[in-house]
Amino acid sequence: MNLPKQVRLVEVGPRDGLQNEKQPISVADKVRLVDDLSAAGLSYIEVGSFVSPKWVPQMAGSAEVFAQIQQQPGVTYAALTPNLRGFEAALEAGVKEVAVFAAASEAFSQKNINCSIAESLERFVPLMVAAKQHGVRVRGYVSCVLGCPYDGSVAPEQIALVARELFAMGCYEVSLGDTIGAGTAGDTRRLFEVVGRDIPREKLAGHFHDTYGQALANIYASLLEGISVFDSSVAGLGGCPYAKGATGNVATEDVLYLLNGLGIETGIDMDKLISAGQRICTVLDKPNGSRVARATLARQLR
Q1: Reduced to 3 states, what is the DSSP secondary structure of residue 87?
Q2: What's the rounded mean pLDDT across residues 265-269?
Q3: Cα separation of 81 and 84, whole Å?
Q4: Residues classed as catalytic
Q5: Ordered structural domains, the chain, with CATH
Q6: Max Cα separation, the chain?
Q7: pTM of the predicted model, to two decimals?
Q8: Cβ atoms of 236 and 21 closer than 8 Å
Q9: Where would I find the Pyruvate carboxyltransferase domain in this sequence (predicted)?
Q10: CA 71/CA 167 separation, integer angstroms
Q11: Is 209 exposed, middle or buried (0-12, 13-18, 19+ CB in 10 A)?
C-alpha cells in the first residue's frame, strides 16, 4: 500500500502529556504551551480534561485554560470528557470537540475508571446524545490495544469489538492506543488489519507510547496499513497514571522528523515545535524526551 501523502498529528501534550506530572503547573504555563503549539502549526490540540481534580489533579483549571488560549482558525481545541458531567462542564467552557475513552482490557478498565468495559460504554450513551444535540464532535480512544499491564496480551478481535461500539455510537474517529508501549510493528499491522475490517481505515488513528522504543516503527507500520492520523506529545511528555511502567507518548518532534523524511505533509514548523517543547520542559525542570529536539538543540550550541 502506498504511504499517505498527508498526515494529521493530534497533539496530546497539554492533556495526556501533563496529566502525570507531580508538581503543580500554572494555568498560564498551560495556556502558553497551547498557544506555542498553535503557532507551530498543529491543527488539533487536546487542551485538557474535564475530570475530577481528585483523580487527575493536573487537569484542574481546564476551563480557565480554554478561556485564555488564543484560538486560531482551522485548529481544533479538544478536551477529554469521561462522562456526561464532564461533557457538560466542557460545553460550558465552549469546547467544540471532546474525546471519550474505553479500555480493550477488563482489568485496565476496572483499575482506570472502576467499571467494566460494557459499563464504561453505557456511560457514553447520554454523552453522545447530548453531543449530537449541541453539534459537538466526539473522538474515541481505546487503550491497551497492544498489551495490558494486568491482563497481558489482548486479542485484536476484542479491540475490534470495543472500537466498533465506539464507532457505532457516533465517534467520528477511533484512536487505538498502545498504552504500555510494548507493541511491535508486526503486532501493529495485525491490529489494523483486524480492526480495519469493520471500521474504514480513514476513521482510525494510532496512539503509541515509546516504553520499548518501538513507537516510530509502529507508526511506520501503521502508515503501511493506510493510517494517516497519529496522536503524539510534544517533547515526549506523558504516561498513564494507571499503567505502571508506561513511559511517555511518542514525541511529536520525532514523528514529524520521520514524516518529513518520507515526504509526507503535516503543515508543522519543526523549529517552532522544538521551541514549544523545550519551553515546557524548562517549566517542568525535566529533560526533553524528544531525541530530535535534543540533537537539534545540541547542534545549535556547537
Answers
A1: helix
A2: 98
A3: 8
A4: 240
A5: 8-301 (3.20.20.70)
A6: 57
A7: 0.95
A8: no
A9: 7-274
A10: 28
A11: buried
